[in-house]
Amino acid sequence: MEPLRVCINTQTPLLQFPPSGGQPRPLWTVERDFAKLHAGVDYQFSPGGVTRMIYPLARRLLSEGVWKEVHWVSLNPNAPEAIEMPGITLHNVSIDRDRMGGYGKVKETIWTTVHGLNGPRLSADLFWTEDYGEYTYYNRTTAELIRRLDESFDFDLFYIHDFQQLPIGHMLGTLKPKVFRWHIPFDAARIPEQWRSVFSTYLQAYDVVIVSADRYRTALRQFGHKGRILRLYPFVDPAEYNRPPEEVVAQTVATKRIFPEDVVALVVARMDPAKGQDRVIGALARVAKSFPRLKLVLAGNGSFSSSREGLGLSKSETWRQHLEERARELGVSDRVVLTGHVTQHELDCLYERCAFTILPSTFEGFGLVVVESWLHDRPALVTARAGIAELIEDGENGLLFDPDDPASLVRQMRRVLRSEMTLVPRLVAGGRIAARRCTIDAAARAESRLVGEAVEA
Questions:
Q1: Coil, helix or strand for 90?
Q2: How far apart are CA 180 and CA 8, in angstroms?
Q3: Which residue among 190, 329, 343, 414 is the one 20 to 30 A from 70 at the CA level?
Q4: Can you give the residue ranges of every domain in the chain?
């Protein structure tokens, strides 16, 4: 197979640019040389899967000659029109701020409905709202840019990522191969009846739909999807994770109010009700007297959608305030640390410092933080509603709990805190083995086969 020209489409951009604060922004050229931009000044890499998964995969497949050229289209209203990186050109979509509000409301409605956080009445009339017109406008604007790029570069494959972009494949109006990766959970029972025909039409536009767990593949079949469905586990590049020396770790975490006597339980997640941080605060209150040195660290901030660089939605700050109030109500404020955004170095230090991690989500597409825990040789307590739960053998490579059963999480916290003589070493060793299924090496092999089959079909 000849190397491919690929168009990637994500909502979240690879690079985020600070807003101008009302000041005139310097005139951007049509193409901007990435080498001339300064990290931490001109831009930062977006936290999350775009940077952890998609970017390393693109670099790997380019280096192996599977892909020849990548054009990456994403929503990025503060960015230059295009940015040139080695082998990758970033193309940034911008829509009027007043239209982004409607798009953001629809995106959040879909997100909360799929995660079981909405009542059915709120969701049912979604496609009849004015806001849905803005959602369609955003996707149409993106699709038109991709079509213009296709006329210039003649792509071999379109690779569309996540639920916000679902209409894109249908809007492109091309018979060229299109792959769609659905990153969030999929439960057919959570899709309102009024949405089903729309979702089905959009999904059928793709040659392959990728999901993150076998349970979602089964759910898509129950939903009635007739096309090809492939389960590929999300992944990370182990080379991106460092294990800083103890003295560096101690100095770094001290800035987060973490001291040598603390036993740290770590939750790494954005500020969002679906992430379940409130459940861990409740569990902490129940074990606090038995484990007076235990401290809960909640690392993370908002998503691109809630950032000033993105849609400016306020849910992350609202949820953070709720968590702070919940900790006060339960009398554990001094035992809870909310770090806000952390750099990769700080995150590596937090993983190295913690005794164990917790993934408490009420519903989770996969849960790469568990893989990160394994790479740092830390035991992980994992919600049974995460996609990665199907890789967990309770007591062997992780500890499972029901996020709706507070006693379940408390029981597993006590178990790891009491640290049976063989439990923690067994969890660490088992996690190290399980992590191999979620690395970029495994992913690159699977993705190479996938794109080859899609193009040659």
A1: strand
A2: 10
A3: 343
A4: 4-236+440-456, 238-438
188 and 222 in contact (C-beta within 8 Å)? yes
The answer to whether 32 touches 80, Cβ cutoff 8 Å, is yes
pLDDT, tens only, 319-364: 999 999 999 999 999 999 999 989 889 999 999 999 999 999 999 9
C-alpha to C-alpha distance for 232 and 355, rounded to whole angstroms:
30
The whole-number average pLDDT for the span 360-386 is: 96
The full length of the chain comes to 457
Helix (H) or strand (E) holding 356: strand 356-359
Q: How far apart are CA 377 and CA 433, in angstroms?
A: 11
pLDDT band at 31 (very low <50, low <70, confident <90, very high): low
Rounded Cα gap, residues 189 and 223, in angstroms: 8
Rounded to an integer, what distance in angstroms lies between the CA atom of residue 147 and that of residue 153?
Answer: 10
The class that CATH gives domain 4-236+440-456 is alpha beta
Q: What is the pLDDT of residues 421-450, one digit of tens each?
A: 789 999 999 999 999 999 999 999 999 998
| Residues 6+ away with beta carbon under 8 Å from 30 | 81, 82
pLDDT exceeds cutoff 90 at 296: yes
What is the spatial distance between Cα 291 and Cα 310, in angstroms, rounded to a whole number?
41
pLDDT at 30 over 50: no
Equal fold, 4-236+440-456 vs 238-438: yes
DSSP bridge pairs for 230: 210
Select the CATH number that applies to the domain covering 238-438 from these four: 3.30.420.10, 3.40.50.2000, 3.30.450.20, 3.40.640.10.
3.40.50.2000
Burial class for 182, CB neighbours closer than 10 Å (0-12, 13-18, 19+): buried
- pLDDT tens, position by position, 219-253: 999 999 999 999 999 999 998 888 999 999 999 99
Angle between helical axes of 277-287 and 315-329 (0-180°, round to 10): 10
| pTM for the whole structure | 0.90
* The pLDDT of residue 27: 43
DSSP alpha helices (H): ranges in 209-299?
A: 214-223, 246-254, 277-287
276 SS3 class: coil
